[in-house]
Write a structure and sequence with these properties.
DUF1788 domain-containing protein; BrxB; 7 strands; 7-stranded mixed β-sheet; 8 helices; globular
Length: about 200
């Protein structure tokens, strides 16, 4: 994405999210207010800067954004359990598959991540919830599992997930999250592509 395209989408996102229709979750036909902002992984730094500007522009309009970065959340959970330093020490000598499975067993999306996310959502008032850090936690946490497990706790405010890859939507095949543009994360039917939303 060129700098011009990033700026164009940034303006579009601000226009959509500052609108009453978006914040009041109108026109969702009973679906959860989950939105995906897919982007090319090579644009991650530009998107991170754009995200900061989006938050600032929304704050200037009195719209509070709560950001939950999954990577930061995972590190905090592992440190709270007292296992972070041990994991760092054992990672170089542990086969990758074993290490990944060990992390997966410690970071269940329903039992561990959803309650931690809910605690953050309950800790302060906000208008829009940003979910970030998706690429950093793959493959031990899959984005579709997180989305499925937060549907009941995060559906009273709009949620925007910044996704490094593609969100493919097909009437015949359903919708799929394709992480980094090459790894199909799995099907997830309930989110909408924010780029397709009207301002």
């Amino acid at each position: 994405m060129s700098t011009h395209e990033v700026a164009k989408w940034e303006d579009h996102l601000v226009a959509v999210m500052s609108g009453r229709r978006f914040r009041n979750m109108e026109g969702l036909s009973g679906e959860v207010p989950f939105f995906i902002y897919p982007y090319e992984p090579t644009d991650a730094l530009e998107i991170a800067q754009s995200k900061k500007r989006i938050k600032t522009k929304l704050a200037q309009q009195g719209i509070e954004v709560l950001e939950v970065n999954l990577y930061d959340l995972v590190v905090e959970l592992l440190k709270d359990r007292g296992v972070w330093d041990d994991l760092i020490a054992m990672e170089p000598d542990t086969p990758k598959d074993d290490f990944r499975e060990g992390l997966r067993s410690m970071l269940d999306p329903g039992d561990d991540l959803a309650p931690a996310i809910q605690a953050r959502l309950n800790a302060q008032p906000f208008d829009i919830f940003f979910l970030t850090g998706i690429g950093e936690v793959f493959p031990y946490i899959r984005s579709h599992n997180v989305l499925n497990n937060i549907q009941t706790i995060a559906s009273n405010k709009p949620m925007l997930m910044f996704f490094p890859g593609r969100y493919e939507q097909s009437q015949t095949l359903g919708s799929s999250l394709v992480l980094f543009g090459v790894m199909k994360d799995d099907q997830y039917y309930r989110a909408k592509d924010i780029r397709e939303q009207e301002a």
